[in-house]
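#lab-general

N.A. 3:47 PM
ok so I finally got the sequence cleaned up, no stray characters, all 198 residues accounted for. can someone with queue access submit it? mine expired

B.Y. 3:52 PM
send it over

N.A. 3:53 PM
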Amino acid sequence: MTQKKVAILISGGGSNMVTLVDSMTGNHPARPCLVLSNNADAGGLTKAADRGIATAVVDHRPFGKDREAFEAELVKPILASGADIVCLAGFMRVLTAGFVSQFEGRMLNIHPSLLPKYKGLHTHARALEAGDARHGCTVHEVTPLLDDGPVLGQAEVPVLPGDTPDVLAARVLEQEHRLYPAVLERYAAGDRTPVLLA
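B.Y. 4:20 PM
back already:
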């Protein structure tokens, strides 16, 4: 079996990127080929380089509001890497339909809610405000609609008395680190059956 090449896009510390990279060992159906960030100061770039993975930076700021121009540059290192799969792992830029369509059916994202609930930002605060008893995270295929693609996996956590958004976020992040590698391994092997973690 030929290993699929995976490009991972980050904006910050890259904790989900690290769990993905560290899971791709042995007979895994995928291997990391690039870690790409829109932020030259992203801590995850150093972590990737320390693991021997190629890194690249395309800063969005010089492009202002011209997202298409930014994405025209962003796609270049991805294509040059030969990536078969693109994983968004804390990449804090909304991508246009034009960009997403280039990787249709092979781009994944992890989102900190049980989609379709709480698309967008501030998911933990919104779950608390709604009085939810369960919260969690979702890995989904990326489509042009924000946080809307087919669900490939979910992990749930209980919402506990006294939870703050930060406390709840930390509990969800632990599950993100379990869920994303599990989904990627299955996805890279050609299996789209959703992964469900309790």
